[in-house]
C-alpha cells in the first residue's frame, strides 16, 4: 500500500456529508441459508411461556484449523539446475553484513570493483543517519508451534452474513507483505541500500503535508528477515494458503546492474523462505519490485538522492528510478536470475507493485512495460513456466459520482484511461496508450506496432490493489485543455478531474479510516471489478485490500488492540461483494490477498497500521487480531468442498 496518491494526484472535493453502510459478518453457521432457521421468524404471533430459570449461556470454543500440508509438491518450471544454461554469466559471492563500528571491514584492502570495500562504500554513501541499531536478531530464528490458546476464535460479530455463495474451489486467497516494510536487517548479509531508506528522511514539511506524524526509518521494522519462519508458521496455523511477499533486488544484486555478482546469502534466504512456506502447505507468491529500487539508480550524491527521491513528481508520487537509462536492462537481468532460481516452486509472479507510484515521466512507463514484457516472454518461452504473471496496479478504477450524468462518466473514463490505461491498454490488449494519457504526459514514448505486438497479452490476469474507490466528478469544462497545460499554476493537472469523498446525497462514500484519508467502499467494488474484466477481457485478482487503523493511537491493552471489528467488517464486506461479482456478474475474480498479514512500516512511519496481527515494537511479538480469525472463518465456511 502506498498512501500518498489521494493527496497528490487528484483534486479532492470538499466533504459534503456522509453515507453509512451496515456491513455484515459471518459466524461459522449460516442460519439464513437453512429453511428451518426461518420457520420461527415466519410465525405471526410470538408464544410466551415460563420455564425453569438456568444460567444457560454456553460458549462454543472453536480454534482455527491449520492449512493441510501438500500431498505432492506442484512444479511450475524446471529446477534451476536444468535452466542455468540460460544465464551463463552469473557469478555468486557474499559480503556479509556492513559493520558500522569499524567503518571499513578487516579486509579493508581494495578487493575489487565489487568487493567488500566497495560494498561498505555503498553504505557509507547512503542516507542512513543514526544507523546503529540492528534489532533483536542477527540469525534466523527457529519456529515454534503456535499454542492452541492463541488460536481460539473471538465471539461472533453482531452482524451476520446473509449471503449463501460459496468460494470457488480454485479461489486464491492469501495475505501479502513487502520486503522493505517487514524485513529490517537492511545492511545485513549483503543487502545494499535502496530507495526506501530515504523515506524517513523526508523534509519535515513534506512529511507534514502527507500527514505523517512520526517519521521512522525502515532499519528494523518487523525483523521478518530473521523471523520469517515464525511468521510463516503463524500463517499456516491460522489457515492461510497463499503468502505474497516481495524479493529485495538489493539483496540479490548489491551492485544492481547486469554483470555484477549475485549475493549467495540473498538467494539462500529466499530459497529457504519458499521451501519453508511449501513445507507448511503455503504457496509462495513473488513480487520482484515493490518500491525498493537500489540506490545506484539515483547517483552517488546524497543530497541529490534525497531531492530526487522526494515526493515531487508530476504523474507518479515518488521517483523510483524507472527512467534511468540502464533500468530496463538491469531489472530484466535481476528478474531472470530470480525467476530461474525459484520458478519451479512459485505459481504466481508480479513484476512490479503499483508502478504508477514511481513513473515520473514517459520514459519511466516505457521502461516498466517493456521490462515486464521481456520477463514475461523469458518466463513463458525460455523457462517454460506454467505459472501466471502479472503486475499489481495502483489507483483503483474510478467510478462516476453520478453515473447518469455524461460529464461525470467522461471524467471517470478519463481518470481510468490516465491512471490504468498506459499499462493495461498495451499489456492486456496490445493497444496504444489511450489519448487521456498522451494528452497529459506529452513526453510519452510512442509505441511501434512491433512494441505492441511484444507487449500484448503479457498479463495472465490483472492484479489490482483495490483499497477504496475514487468517486470521480468533473472540475474543468475542457479536460483536454487542462491536460495539455502542465504548468504548476494549473492546480488540476495532471488528473484534471475531482475526487469526491461524498455521494450525491452528501453522505461520506464509506467508513472513513481513522489514520489516513481513505474510505471503506465495498459498495463500488462490483463496478470496479466489472470495469476491469469487461474492458480488458482478462481475469482479475485483488492483489491487495485492507483497512488501516491509527497505529500511533493504539490502545494500551493488547486485547483492545486485538478487537479490530472495523477491519473485520471491511474484509467481510469486500469478500461478500467479490462473491457477488463472481456468481451474479460472472466476473472471473481469481483471488484476493489481504494487506497485510502483520502491522508494518508504511513508507516512513508506523502511524497507519494495516495488520491482521499486531507487532509489539519492543519485543517483536506478534498477536493475531480478531479480523484475522473473522476473515479466515468467512472464507473457510464458504469454500466449496471437492
Ligand atoms: C557472457 O560473457 C561473455 C564475455 O563477457 C560475453 O561475450 C557473452 O555475450 C555473455 N553472454 C551472455 C548471454 O550475456
Ligand atoms: C540523529 O541523532 C541525533 C542525536 O540523537 C539527532 O539529533 C538527530 O536528529 C538524528 N537524525 C536523524 C535524521 O534521525
Ligand atoms: C550534490 O548535489 C547538490 C545538489 O544538486 C550540489 O549542490 C552538490 O554540490 C553536490 N555535491 C557533490 C559532491 O557533487
Ligand atoms: C452534469 O454534471 C455537471 C457537472 O457537475 C453539471 O454542471 C450538469 O448540470 C450535470 N448535467 C445534468 C444533466 O445534470
Ligand atoms: C509540458 O508541456 C509542454 C507544452 O505543451 C510540453 O512541451 C512538454 O513536453 C510538457 N512536459 C512534459 C514533461 O510532458
Ligand atoms: C491518531 O493518533 C494520534 C495519537 O493519539 C493522534 O494525535 C491523531 O490525531 C490520531 N489521528 C486521527 C485521525 O484520529
Ligand atoms: C510490549 O512489550 C513490552 C515489553 O514486554 C510490554 O511492557 C508491553 O506491555 C507490550 N505492549 C503491549 C501492547 O502488549
UniProtKB/TrEMBL annotation:
<protein>
    <submittedName>
        <fullName>Glycoside hydrolase family 1 protein</fullName>
    </submittedName>
</protein>
<feature type="signal peptide">
    <location>
        <begin position="1"/>
        <end position="17"/>
    </location>
</feature>
<keyword id="KW-0732">Signal</keyword>
<dbReference type="GO" id="GO:0005975">
    <property type="term" value="P:carbohydrate metabolic process"/>
</dbReference>
<dbReference type="InterPro" id="IPR001360">
    <property type="entry name" value="Glyco_hydro_1"/>
</dbReference>
<keyword id="KW-0378">Hydrolase</keyword>
<dbReference type="GO" id="GO:0008422">
    <property type="term" value="F:beta-glucosidase activity"/>
</dbReference>
<comment type="similarity">
    <text>Belongs to the glycosyl hydrolase 1 family.</text>
</comment>
<dbReference type="Pfam" id="PF00232">
    <property type="entry name" value="Glyco_hydro_1"/>
</dbReference>
<dbReference type="InterPro" id="IPR017853">
    <property type="entry name" value="GH"/>
</dbReference>
Amino acid at each position: 500500500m502506498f498512501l500518498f496518491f489521494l493527496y497528490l494526484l487528484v483534486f479532492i472535493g470538499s466533504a459534503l456529508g456522509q453515507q453509512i453502510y451496515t456491513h455484515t459478518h459471518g459466524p461459522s453457521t449460516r442460519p439464513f441459508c437453512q429453511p428451518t432457521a426461518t420457520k420461527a421468524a415466519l410465525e405471526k404471533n410470538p408464544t410466551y411461556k415460563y420455564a425453569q430459570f438456568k444460567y444457560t449461556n454456553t460458549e462454543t470454543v472453536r480454534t482455527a484449523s491449520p492449512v493441510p500440508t501438500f500431498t505432492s509438491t506442484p512444479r511450475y518450471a524446471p529446477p534451476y539446475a536444468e535452466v542455468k544454461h540460460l544465464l551463463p554469466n552469473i557469478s555468486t559471492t557474499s559480503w556479509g553484513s556492513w559493520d558500522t563500528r569499524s567503518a571499513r571491514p578487516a579486509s579493508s584492502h581494495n578487493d575489487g570493483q565489487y568487493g567488500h570495500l566497495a560494498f561498505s562504500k555503498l553504505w557509507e554513501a547512503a542516507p542512513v543517519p543514526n544507523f546503529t541499531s540492528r534489532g533483536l536478531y542477527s540469525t534466523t530464528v527457529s519456529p515454534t508451534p503456535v499454542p492452541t490458546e492463541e488460536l481460539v476464535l473471538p465471539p461472533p460479530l453482531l452482524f451476520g452474513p446473509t449471503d449463501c455463495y460459496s468460494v470457488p474451489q480454485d479461489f486464491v486467497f492469501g495475505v501479502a507483505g513487502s520486503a522493505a516494510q517487514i524485513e529490517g536487517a537492511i545492511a545485513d548479509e549483503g543487502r545494499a541500500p535502496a530507495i526506501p531508506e530515504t523515506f524517513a528522511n523526508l523534509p519535515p514539511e513534506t512529511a507534514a503535508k502527507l500527514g505523517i506524524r512520526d517519521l521512522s526509518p525502515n532499519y528494523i521494522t518487523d525483523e521478518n528477515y530473521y523471523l520469517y519462519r515464525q511468521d510463516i508458521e503463524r500463517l499456516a496455523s491460522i489457515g492461510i494458503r497463499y503468502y505474497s511477499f516481495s524479493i529485495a533486488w538489493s539483496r540479490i544484486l548489491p551492485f544492481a546492474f547486469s554483470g555484477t555478482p549475485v549475493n549467495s546469502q540473498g538467494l539462500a534466504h529466499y530459497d529457504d523462505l519458499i521451501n519453508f512456506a511449501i513445507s507448511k502447505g503455503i504457496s509462495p507468491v513473488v513480487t520482484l519490485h515493490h518500491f525498493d529500487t537500489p540506490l545506484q539508480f539515483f547517483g552517488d550524491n546524497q543530497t541529490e538522492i534525497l531531492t530526487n527521491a522526494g515526493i515531487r513528481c508530476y504523474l507518479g508520487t515518488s521517483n523510483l528510478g524507472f527512467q534511468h537509462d540502464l533500468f530496463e536492462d538491469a531489472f530484466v537481468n535481476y528478474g531472470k536470475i530470480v525467476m530461474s532460481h525459484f520458478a519451479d516452486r512459485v505459481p504466481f509472479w508480479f513484476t512490479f507493485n503499483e508502478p504508477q507510484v514511481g513513473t515520473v515521466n514517459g520514459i519511466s512507463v516505457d521502461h516498466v512495460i517493456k521490462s515486464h514484457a521481456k520477463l514475461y516472454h523469458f518466463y513463458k518461452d525460455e523457462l517454460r513456466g506454467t505459472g501466471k504473471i502479472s503486475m499489481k496496479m495502483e489507483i483503483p478504477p474510478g467510478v462516476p459520482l453520478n453515473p447518469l450524468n455524461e460529464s461525470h462518466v467522461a471524467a471517470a473514463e478519463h481518470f481510468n484511461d490516465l491512471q490504468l490505461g498506459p499499462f493495461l491498454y498495451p499489456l492486456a490488449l496490445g493497444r496504444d496508450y489511450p489519448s487521456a494519457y498522451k494528452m497529459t504526459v506529452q513526453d510519452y514514448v510512442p509505441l511501434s506496432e512491433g512494441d505492441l505486438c511484444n507487449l500484448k497479452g503479457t498479463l495472465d490476469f490483472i492484479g489490482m490493489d483495490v483499497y477504496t474507490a475514487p468517486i470521480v466528478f468533473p472540475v474543468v469544462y475542457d479536460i483536454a485543455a487542462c491536460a495539455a497545460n502542465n504548468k504548476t499554476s494549473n492546480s488540476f493537472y495532471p488528473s484534471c478531474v475531482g475526487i469526491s469523498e461524498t455521494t450525491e446525497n452528501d453522505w461520506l462514500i464509506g467508513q472513513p479510516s481513522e489514520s489516513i484519508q481513505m474510505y471503506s467502499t465495498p459498495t463500488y467494488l462490483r463496478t470496479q471489478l466489472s470495469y476491469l474484466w469487461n474492458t480488458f477481457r482478462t481475469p482479475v485478482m485483488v492483489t491487495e485490500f485492507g483497512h488501516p487503523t491509527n497505529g500511533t493511537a493504539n490502545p494500551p491493552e493488547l486485547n483492545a488492540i486485538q478487537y479490530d471489528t472495523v477491519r473485520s467488517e471491511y474484509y467481510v464486506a469486500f469478500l461478500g461483494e467479490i462473491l457477488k461479482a463472481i456468481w451474479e456478474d460472472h466476473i472471473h475474480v481469481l483471488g484476493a490477498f489481504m494487506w497485510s498479514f502483520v502491522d508494518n512500516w508504511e513508507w516512513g512511519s508506523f502511524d497507519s497500521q494495516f495488520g491482521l496481527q499486531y507487532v509489539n515494537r519492543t519485543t517483536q511479538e506478534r498477536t493475531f487480531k480478531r479480523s484475522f480469525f473473522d476473515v479466515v472463518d468467512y472464507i473457510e465456511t464458504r469454500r466449496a468442498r471437492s
